[in-house]
Amino acid sequence: MIFQKVKTITVVSVLALAALTGCDDQKKGGAPANAMVPQVSVVEIQPDTRAQTTILQGRTAPFLVAEVRPQVSGILQKRLFKEGEEVKEGQPLYQIDPAVYKAAVESAKAEVERAKSLVMQTRNSANRYAQLVKTEAVSKQMNEDAQAAYKQAQASLLAAQAQLKNAEINFGYTTITSPITGKIGRSLVTPGALLSGYQANNMAVVQTLDPIYVDVNESSRDLLKLKKEIAEGRIKVNEGAIPVSLTLEDGSVYPLEGKLELSEVSVDEGTGTITLRAVFPNPNQTLLPGMYVRTKLPQGLRENAIFVPQRAVLRESNGSPYVYVVQDGKIAIKKIKTIKTEGTDWLLESGLEPGDKVVIEGLQRIRPGVPVNIVPTMAEQAAQQQKK
């Protein structure tokens, strides 16, 4: 038992002495002998020419919109369409009771016939008096009265014909037709309703959905900046129609390409934005009015631009961006000035030069002045393993 205790104490003493010796060696020699140099992966910055695009949010709007309203008053007799169906321009939609307007047409026709009879009668009298006044069989005054009566009868005929035309138009308005071709929504009135001519409330809405508009808003500040870069030659713009691509609410890409049709001529004072309108073909009516979408608009080609991966960009406590670069085998900091994101990269205004080696992996293990070893990225290493 005594021998075992002495043996245990001896082992512990040896271990303690070894630990103290190690600590002393570390103080004298600095870092331990097995300390490893951090490994990082870098990307070498090279100027690039890329198509500049902007992503703008917006909503779809119908190409044409028509609110159906009655042009004459009366009782609605029946609805002549199926809600939600496609209707053609001029297709009957509603029928108003036409009895009153049909009677007005018949009355106006009778008035036209009476006026025609009066014209014939006064014309004969005017012709007769015109012959008699030449032989002084009648006075000039009587002839003038006959001629005036004839002209008055002609005017009455024209008025009666206009009244008949107006009655026929109102009679035609009793059948309410679609003003445009498109899809009609639900009916807001039912048979038996009393309608008023040109009433404020519509009866239904018809919308043309193929093609369809997409309205987006762009900051006036961004637009001014773009125009400045174009004027300075940093961005080259292609002439002709501007193509636009679309991403739907669920993240899927709309398969058909649209084109930019107009840019609003004034800035919205409340939002400081300018409305841009694109038009898209919509044969299957995948796009419906009011849908939220994201558009991708090309702005031109930016030549000799400097891009850096977003994952390489770090920020100071005040939000200023910077990156780690490898210079002479050691880590250094470079502050950068960004313009905007392009995919997974930042477009830079200043801060980096061609040939700079920017750290993109191993950022957690480094600090300025620390020597590092450059190794392939994890993706590159995985690709190499697959080849083996």
From TrEMBL:
Signal peptide: none
Domain annotation Multidrug resistance protein MdtA-like C-terminal permuted SH3: ranges: 304-365
Tagged with keyword Coiled coil: yes
Domain Multidrug resistance protein MdtA-like alpha-helical hairpin: 106-174
Highest taxon listed in the record's lineage: Bacteria
Residue ranges of coiled coil: 105-170
Keywords: Coiled coil
Example GO biological process: response to antibiotic
Domain Multidrug resistance protein MdtA-like beta-barrel: 211-297
All copies of domain Multidrug resistance protein MdtA-like barrel-sandwich hybrid, residue ranges: 65-207
Compartment list: Cell envelope
GO cellular component: cell envelope; plasma membrane
Pfam families: Beta-barrel_RND, BSH_RND, HH_MFP_RND, RND-MFP_C
A GO MF label: transmembrane transporter activity
Sequence similarity: Belongs to the membrane fusion protein (MFP) (TC 8.A.1) family.
Record-given protein name: Efflux RND transporter periplasmic adaptor subunit
Annotated organism of origin: Parasutterella muris
The organism's taxonomic lineage, starting at the top: Bacteria, Pseudomonadati, Pseudomonadota, Betaproteobacteria, Burkholderiales
